[in-house]
Backbone:
C-alpha cells in the first residue's frame, strides 16, 4: 500500500510540475483540445472515408470542401485555387487570416492520398485501443486534423485574433502536376510568411523533421528485336527488351543502393509484345506470349536525395548504365524534377528546439530532429529556401503509402496539444 501511495504522489507531483510550466492561457488551450477531441476524431473518420487519390479530382475536391467548412467556421477566409484543366489536378485549398501579432505562419497540409480509384479502398477502422487504420489516416488526413484541431482550440480561446496564418492544403502532393502553375500560388504565399510548419506524418511523439529529401521521377524505356523465343540470344536477334530492362535495374541496385540518403524505386513496369503506358494516369496495359521476344518495356520510378549535388551525380551514373546496352537492344531514360531537398538549417533547428521545449512543458518528454533518410519528399521543401521550416508535426502511425496504413490514436491528441502550443507561442 505504501508503495502505491508513493507512486500516486509521484505522478501527482509530476503532473502539477508540468502544469506550472504552462501559463493559465496555455492550460485553457489544452483543456479545449481535450474537450474537442470527439469532434476531431469524427472529422478524421469522415476525411479518411472520402477517397481522394491524387487523380480522383472529385474526391480531392470533396475533402477540400469538408475542411473549407471547418476553416470558415473559425474565421478564416478560404479560397479554392484551381489548376489548368490540362494538368488534370483538382486544385488547392487556402485558408487565411491576417493581423499584426507575432510571426506570420505558413501551415502546410495536403488533401490527396496515393490510393487511386482503381485500388482497393479501405475505410477508417479502429483496430484496438491504440491503433486505427484507413487510407491516408496518417499521411496525411491525420495531419490535416492535427493542424485544424490546434487552430480550433486557439480560436475558442480568442487567441487567433490579430494573427497572420495561412493554412495551405495542396491537392496533388503525392503526384504533383507538371508545370509552374502547380505550386506558383503556394510559393508566393509562403514568401509572405516567416515560418513554415508542415503537418506530414510524425515519426512519433519525440521526433520532428528539420530536413527532408527531395524527389524526382524517371522514365526508362528499353527496346529489343521481336522474334520467336527460340532465337533469343543469337547474334542477329539479341536479348530482347525485358532482359535489357532487367540488366539496367539490377545495375542501378548494384551501383547506387548503398549511398546514404539516396533511394530509387521502379514503381511500375510493363513489357511484352504490345505495350501501352499512360504517364498521366500512371496506368499500363500489356499483351504478350511466352514464345515472343518482347520488343518494348516501360519502367516508371522515383529518385530521392538530400541535396541537388547528390541528385545530379546519381542521374549521371544512371545514364551511364542505361547506355551500356545488351546486343541488339537500346534504352533511354528521362528525368523529371518534382521536389527539391530540404537541408537542415540553424533556423530549422530553432523550430525543433521550440517543439522540444513545448513537449517538455507538456510533460511528454524530449523532441529531437529525425534522420532525413527515413523520410520522403514533401511540399515544405519547395519553400525551404525562403523561410525557416519544420515538418513531421502531423499524426503518427505506420505503413504510409501501403495497405494497412495505421494511426497511433493514443498519441494523436497529444500531437494536437503540442501543435496548438507551438502555434500559440509563435504568434505571441
Residues:
Amino acid at each position: 500500500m505504501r508503495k502505491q501511495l508513493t507512486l500516486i504522489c509521484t505522478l501527482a507531483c509530476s503532473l502539477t510540475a508540468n502544469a506550472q510550466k504552462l501559463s493559465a492561457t496555455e492550460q485553457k488551450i489544452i483543456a479545449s483540445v481535450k474537450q474537442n477531441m470527439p469532434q476531431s476524431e469524427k472529422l478524421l473518420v469522415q476525411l479518411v472515408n472520402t477517397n481522394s487519390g491524387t487523380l480522383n479530382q472529385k474526391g480531392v475536391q470533396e475533402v477540400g470542401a469538408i475542411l473549407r467548412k471547418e476553416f470558415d467556421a473559425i474565421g478564416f477566409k478560404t479560397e479554392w485555387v484551381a489548376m489548368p484543366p490540362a494538368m488534370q489536378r483538382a486544385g488547392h485549398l487556402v485558408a487565411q487570416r491576417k493581423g499584426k501579432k507575432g510571426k506570420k505562419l505558413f501551415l502546410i497540409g495536403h488533401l490527396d492520398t496515393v490510393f487511386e480509384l482503381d485500388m482497393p479502398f479501405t475505410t477508417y477502422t479502429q483496430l484496438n485501443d491504440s491503433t486505427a487504420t484507413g487510407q491516408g489516416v496518417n499521411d496525411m488526413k491525420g495531419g490535416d486534423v492535427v493542424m485544424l484541431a490546434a487552430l480550433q482550440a486557439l480560436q475558442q480561446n480568442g487567441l487567433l485574433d490579430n494573427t497572420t496564418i495561412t493554412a495551405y492544403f495542396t491537392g496533388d502532393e503525392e503526384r504533383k502536376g507538371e508545370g509552374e502553375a502547380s505550386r506558383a500560388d503556394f510559393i508566393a504565399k509562403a514568401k509572405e510568411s516567416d515560418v513554415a510548419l508542415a503537418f506530414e506524418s510524425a515519426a512519433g511523439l519525440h521526433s520532428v523533421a528539420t530536413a527532408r529529401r527531395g524527389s524526382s521521377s524517371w522514365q526508362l524505356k528499353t527496346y529489343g528485336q521481336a522474334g520467336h523465343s527460340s532465337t533469343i540470344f543469337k547474334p542477329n536477334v539479341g536479348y530482347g527488351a525485358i532482359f535489357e530492362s532487367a540488366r539496367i535495374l539490377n545495375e542501378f541496385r548494384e551501383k547506387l543502393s548503398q549511398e546514404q540518403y539516396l533511394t530509387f524505386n521502379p514503381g511500375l513496369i510493363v513489357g511484352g509484345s504490345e505495350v501501352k503506358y499512360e504517364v498521366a494516369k500512371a496506368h499500363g496495359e500489356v499483351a504478350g506470349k511466352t514464345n515472343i521476344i518482347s520488343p518494348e518495356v516501360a519502367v516508371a520510378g522515383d529518385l530521392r536525395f538530400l541535396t541537388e549535388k547528390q541528385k545530379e551525380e546519381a542521374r549521371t551514373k544512371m545514364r551511364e548504365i542505361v547506355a551500356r546496352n545488351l546486343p541488339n537492344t537500346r534504352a533511354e531514360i528521362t528525368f523529371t524534377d518534382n521536389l527539391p531537398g530540404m537541408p537542415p538549417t540553424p533556423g530549422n533547428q530553432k523550430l525543433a528546439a521550440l517543439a522540444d521545449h513545448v513537449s517538455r512543458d507538456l510533460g511528454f518528454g524530449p523532441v529531437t530532429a529525425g534522420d532525413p533518410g527515413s523520410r520522403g519528399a514533401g511540399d515544405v521543401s519547395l519553400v525551404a529556401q525562403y523561410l525557416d521550416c519544420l515538418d513531421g508535426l502531423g499524426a503518427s502511425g505506420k505503413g504510409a503509402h501501403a495497405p494497412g496504413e495505421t494511426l497511433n490514436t493514443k498519441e494523436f491528441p497529444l500531437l494536437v496539444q503540442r501543435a496548438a502550443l507551438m502555434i500559440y507561442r509563435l504568434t505571441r
User: Anything to note?
Assistant: The chain is about 35% helix and 25% strand. Residues 20-212+342-426 form a domain with the Aminopeptidase fold (CATH 3.40.630.10). The chain has two domains: 20-212+342-426, 214-339.
